[in-house]
């Protein structure tokens, strides 16, 4: 009975995190962009510092009419938002927040699990584009597929590098094996992993699949109301997952300065929040890449860097053993 209760409490905690953190990042993005770009609107909703902006967005989405295009594949069209969102909930179950039992579920091959499930989430965009009976949605879906194929490989290679350094594919095992002197020689892999993750989430400057000036809003053009809100929630949940994984794999997870591991969960959240701010800052600061530039960055820059990182990791492992 105690084991069942433990599992239920862990899953409940993961579910609460899944509901709270993406919304917190969405609210933060409103405020950060308002300050960086001088936007007045998000600072006034509800009075003090626009505290009710997120509530207003939720009410707006709930009031929108739920429309399914006449020529759409109705079942696939309706299922796509859930396929885009739920994989990130599964990934959060495997990400360790602190030492010991501070993880939803310990998985021996955790790094393979999280990367495989994150890839499934991208199918939601493909399903949405294919099922919408709209040429702009279809084009956005095809661009999503091309982007996924290009950036999945450098992301996997960068993750393989840190797994090789730690000698394990378990996420808690990788954090346990972490040493601060890893940071200088694994930093390239970390940058590759984070950049490829942004591209898979279709976040600026890698948002070509939803380029409004060309294809309206890509695979999501025909979506309204709560279904569209689910796609937005999937994007913010993806930011939480990407920043959390980058923290665990490349920034030491719960390890803090001066050996203060007693605050492990706090260090994990702080590092994740800092990386989430970087994601928002990149949206504000950098223009969208063209499709050819996006593909060139993956195949001619990130993949060679990831391969070089694996070679460097092999050399360091041989020299230090």
Automatic annotation (TrEMBL):
User: One Pfam family for this entry, by name?
Assistant: NADHdh
Q: What EC numbers are recorded for this enzyme?
A: 7.1.1.-
What InterPro entries has UniProt attached to this entry? Answer: NADH_UbQ_OxRdtase_su1/FPO
Keywords from UniProt, A to Z, are: Cell membrane, Membrane, NAD, Quinone, Translocase, Transmembrane, Transmembrane helix, Ubiquinone
Q: How does it sit in the membrane?
A: Multi-pass membrane protein
Q: Which residues cross the membrane?
A: 7-26, 76-97, 109-132, 153-174, 180-199, 228-252, 264-285, 297-319
* Catalytic EC class: translocase
Principal localisation: membrane
Instruction: Please indicate if the UniProt record lists Transmembrane as a keyword.
Output: yes
Q: Where in the cell is it found?
A: Cell membrane; Membrane
Query: Transmembrane helix: is it a keyword of this entry?
Result: yes
Q: What does this protein do?
A: NDH-1 shuttles electrons from NADH, via FMN and iron-sulfur (Fe-S) centers, to quinones in the respiratory chain. The immediate electron acceptor for the enzyme in this species is believed to be ubiquinone. Couples the redox reaction to proton translocation (for every two electrons transferred, four hydrogen ions are translocated across the cytoplasmic membrane), and thus conserves the redox energy in a proton gradient. This subunit may bind ubiquinone.
Query: Member of which family?
Result: Belongs to the complex I subunit 1 family.
Q: How does it assemble?
A: NDH-1 is composed of 14 different subunits. Subunits NuoA, H, J, K, L, M, N constitute the membrane sector of the complex.
What PANTHER family does the database record attribute to this sequence?
NADH DEHYDROGENASE SUBUNIT 1, NADH-UBIQUINONE OXIDOREDUCTASE CHAIN 1
Protein name in UniProt: NADH-quinone oxidoreductase subunit H
Q: Which organism is it from?
A: Streptomyces griseocarneus
Which gene produces this protein?
A: nuoH
């Amino acid at each position: 009975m105690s084991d069942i209760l433990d599992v239920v409490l862990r899953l409940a905690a993961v579910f609460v995190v899944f509901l709270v953190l993406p919304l917190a990042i969405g609210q933060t993005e409103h405020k950060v962009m308002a300050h960086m770009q001088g936007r007045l609107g998000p600072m006034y909703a509800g009075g003090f510092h626009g505290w009710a902006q997120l509530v207003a967005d939720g009410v707006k989405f709930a009031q929108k009419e739920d429309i399914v295009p006449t020529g759409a594949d109705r079942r696939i069209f309706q299922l796509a938002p859930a396929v885009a969102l739920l994989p990130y909930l599964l990934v959060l179950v495997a990400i360790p927040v602190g030492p010991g039992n501070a993880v939803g579920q310990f998985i021996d091959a955790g790094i393979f699990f999280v990367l495989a499930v994150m890839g499934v989430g991208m199918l939601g965009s493909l399903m949405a584009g294919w099922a919408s009976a709209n040429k702009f949605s279809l084009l956005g879906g095809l661009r999503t597929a091309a982007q996924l194929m290009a950036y999945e490989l450098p992301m996997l290679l960068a993750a393989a590098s840190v797994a090789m350094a730690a000698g394990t594919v378990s996420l808690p095992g990788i954090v346990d094996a972490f040493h601060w002197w890893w940071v200088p020689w694994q930093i390239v892999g970390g940058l590759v992993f984070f950049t490829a993750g942004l591209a898979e989430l279709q976040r600026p400057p890698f948002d070509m699949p939803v380029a409004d000036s060309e294809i309206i809003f890509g695979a999501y053009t025909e979506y309204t109301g709560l279904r569209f809100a689910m796609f937005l929630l999937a994007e913010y949940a993806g930011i939480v997952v990407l920043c959390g994984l980058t923290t665990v794999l490349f920034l030491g997870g719960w390890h803090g300065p001066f050996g203060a591991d007693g605050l492990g969960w706090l260090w994990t959240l702080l590092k994740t929040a800092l990386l989430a701010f970087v994601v928002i800052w990149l949206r504000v600061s950098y223009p969208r890449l063209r499709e050819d530039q996006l593909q060139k960055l993956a195949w001619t820059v990130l993949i060679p860097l990831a391969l070089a990182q694996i070679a460097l990791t092999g050399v360091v492992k041989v020299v230090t053993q």
